[in-house]
Fold this protein.
Amino acid sequence: MRIGIDCRTILNPGKGEQAGVGHYTYYLVRKLLKYDKVNQYVLFFDYRVTNTKEFKQKNAEIKYFPFSEYKKFLPFSYSHMLISAFLSRNKLDIYHSPANVIPYTFKGNSIITVHDLAIYKHPEWFPRGQQFSTKILVPKSLKKVRKIIAVSETTKKDIIKLFKISAKKVKVIYEGVFREKAKVSLQTLKRKHRITDDYILFLGTIEPRKNLVGLIQAYAEVIKSKKFARYQLVMAGAKGWKEKEVFKTIRKLKLEDRVRYLGYVSHEDKLSLIANCTVFVFPSYYEGFGLPILEAMEMGAPVITSNLSSIPEITDHAAVHINPYKEKEILQALKKVLGSAVLRRKLRQAGMKKAKEFSWQKTAKQTMAVYREVGREITAEAKAKEAAKKKKKNKKSTKGGSASGGK
């Protein structure tokens, strides 16, 4: 089959370090090209990605969407009508969009991956101005595509409940984790980012649903004890929407010298920050999957995280779970984990063991199985259509013969 994949979210193919969908697309495509030598892949990029060297393989074609640099001037026309026409010209058997939607006017056979539907459950966490996507494009895409890949059972349940989609149409395929060792030393991190030997780490976008205000307030209480006074709180990740409340809380509690915000860090620094932290805390209210948690377990960091949405699916018993709406539980968990080296060791071992269940190889092979399933459906429908056409033709021929014989 000829399978097209939208790769526009991969902004740095050399690293694959862009968060969220870009990270998923990068590693999925890499493994598909490695393990699938039967199908031909057509990878669609735009003008922002100039280095596609690692994707130029025998089973892959690189295509660039035309006029992509003018998207901001023609958002609807470009994103939907022009892209649909370009996809159709490439004669794909299947088009896979890894970002929740397909072009509005695209009529070909398609699959989408849905990562997160938090905007439907908690619209207050997101900026306004996304009505076309949330109210029209996503619902239409979910109904139009042949198969939907959900990154967790929680996301599958949300899809079924919110959009009345048949469970048979939705396949759960977990994301993977890339196994590599930390290469940047703690001493280098300390010099570069001005962090201490002992620190609590949060890694993710600075936005309301990550519950950083709750974490900061709990941290302020923890360090009042001499036993935990040495611990620094380190936050790494790009600023999102409504991030000002987080920094306002830091100032209000007079924690400017105790909380270090590093911004978006490199892939290498991220791994070392995780590997060297005393505890990784991710008190999010809602996650479609929770990749930072999985990365933390893989790197051997003891994890404190939420007991809501998809997170317990990923962590199972390999983390200390808290109700993110209860600051007291975050506080108690911090004291419990920071106060026990034995517990940290147990969490470290359990996390690394659990992380072994997730791999990009498994993600790719399960995705290939979905492609094959859709391919069989297309073939069966084509055969049924051809059989119906022949039957209709034979029926007409028989009627014509009878009429002739009666004259």
